What we know:
This protein has 216 residues and is an all-alpha fold. It folds into two domains: 3-21 and 137-214, Endonuclease Iii, domain 2 (Orthogonal Bundle), CATH 1.10.1670; 30-129, Orthogonal Bundle (Endonuclease III, domain 1), CATH 1.10.340.30. The chain has helices at residues 3-17, 30-39, 45-58, 62-67, 70-77, 83-101, 109-113, 120-129, 140-148, 157-167, 173-187, 201-204, 207-214. The protein starts with a helix and ends with a helix.
Amino acid sequence: MKRAEKAERVAKLLDELHPEIPVPLDHEDPYTLLLAVLLSAQCTDVRVNQVTPKLFARAKTPAGMAQLPLSVIRKIVTPCGLGPQKSKAIKQLSKTLVEEHGGQVPQSFEALEALPGVGHKTASVVMSQAFGVPAFPVDTHIHRLAARWGLSSGKNVVQTERDLKALFPENTWNRLHLQMIYFGREHCPARGHDLSACPICSWAASKKRIREEAAR
């Protein structure tokens, strides 16, 4: 099966399995989403959603967050892991938003990626989920699924993102990346997964990959 045909079938099945796709990180506006995504690095969304209410109870605007002592931010976000780095990034990016963007989250990839602690994936999530701009944020779930399904041969998330954008219509990117995340969590885990019984891997994965993962 050609990649384009496979992609079309995958998209149709994901629409059937996940017609409703809520944003997994709780937030109120672009700024609170930006901080939630930053905290989600190497941390589960469930944990982030437990931590952010405590953080936003202290401050939920860039101006307010910039005024909080770094030690206070660090103490709150430490359960998300990488406490020193994340707390410093939160304070610095909040200060930058106040000083350079009038206290508003910028609506461009370039400006977002220039903020402290914000990489391409975080910027893509904010652009797609906060501003509705077509983007295809690639996390570990999507990177894994794209390889399993033969939609990408990318050795890194940059190549995987490029391959997926080429396969799927731009107006489906924002929905599809969330659908793939939900599918990965519910049906297609990284370990102990029987590809032959999976709703998508069973027909999309190559026989060689099914054998390889079964042997692990």
